[in-house]
Design goal:
Length: 183
């Protein structure tokens, strides 16, 4: 059983909902390591949250990188839901977001990612980066819905849901760590 820490912030603390427009995505087989949580490092972390905070950066296969994507503002969210029977509870994490457009390259992206094994790093509005999937326990595309829209003001683009089941809420990727992106 975990030690309970003060979980209540004082009134007026900045607590924005949703994600920023930046997110990073990599093919799981392009990653060469499974980063450890801060509590698993040689000098383990002892701060509250360290058991769900990744304390090592990802390393990538030669010539492979995370790709940075811009999503539609106000469209991103990460949900962690407890599921399962008594004694077998686990967390399912889902990152829902939208990408504008239905041009050929955007349709090709949807086609390519549809059965992909991925690692997703969405950035919350608070600045905290969440991590869905890993090299040996990848996330996948749960659903994609592409639309041209019907009338002015409708979305023309895609709504994507990336899902992972890692046994715990989608962990935090320490923002002090580098995200390996193409130079």
């Amino acid at each position: 059983m975990c030690d309970f820490n003060s979980l209540v912030d004082p009134c007026g603390v900045y607590n924005p909902a949703g994600t920023k427009t930046d997110m990073w995505l990599a093919a799981a087989d392009h990653v060469t390591n499974v980063p450890k949580f801060k509590t698993e490092l040689v000098v383990p972390g002892t701060d509250p949250g360290d058991s769900v905070t990744i304390g090592e950066a990802y390393t990538m296969a030669s010539g492979k990188y995370f790709k940075k994507f811009k999503i539609i503002a106000q469209s991103g969210k990460v949900e962690d839901n407890l599921v399962g029977e008594i004694g077998g509870k686990t967390f399912e994490s889902m990152f829902t977001f939208q990408i504008a457009g239905t041009k050929a390259d955007q349709l090709e992206f949807a086609k390519c990612i549809a059965n992909g094994c991925v690692i997703a790093l969405p950035k919350e509005k608070s600045g905290q980066i969440r991590n869905l999937g890993s090299k040996d326990d990848y996330a996948w595309i749960e659903s994609i819905s592409l639309t041209t829209g019907q009338k002015s003001g409708d979305l023309r683009g895609g709504t994507y849901v990336i899902k992972s089941v890692q046994g715990y809420p989608a962990p935090v990727y320490d923002s002090a760590l580098a995200i390996p992106v193409a130079p």
